[in-house]
Design a protein that fits this description.
about 110 residues; alpha/beta; 7 strands; elongated
């Protein structure tokens, strides 16, 4: 998994060579703490992932990236949608705020 921040958004990318089902489960978990989530597969595998998982990707808002193994070029096959998941009744923002407060208390 790769996580980075672009502007104010946190983006997670689950990189896999195979096993799109496992990648999908992991990506859904990442939605609890990130704004955008992508699966990334080699360009030789991404058509199969697209065929098998397109409906789920669209429904869950998870994007799909295709990586050319020779040129290292990355193509966005399916764009990710902004995540609106919550953890119970807590939003991501509330969880992050609570974690920051907890961390500051532990440092004192």
């Amino acid at each position: 998994m790769v996580v980075f921040q672009k502007n104010n958004d946190i983006i997670a990318i689950e990189l896999k060579l195979a096993d799109w089902k496992k990648a999908l489960v992991q990506a859904q978990n990442y939605q609890l703490a990130t704004d955008f989530v992508y699966l990334a597969f080699p360009s030789s595998k991404s058509p199969l992932v697209l065929k098998k998982a397109r409906n789920i990707l669209d429904k869950k808002g998870i994007g799909l990236l295709s990586i050319d193994e020779k040129t290292k070029e990355i193509n966005e096959v399916v764009p990710a949608k902004k995540t609106v998941c919550s953890f119970g009744r807590l939003s991501k923002k509330e969880i992050i705020t609570q974690k920051k407060k907890w961390y500051q208390q532990k440092r004192l």
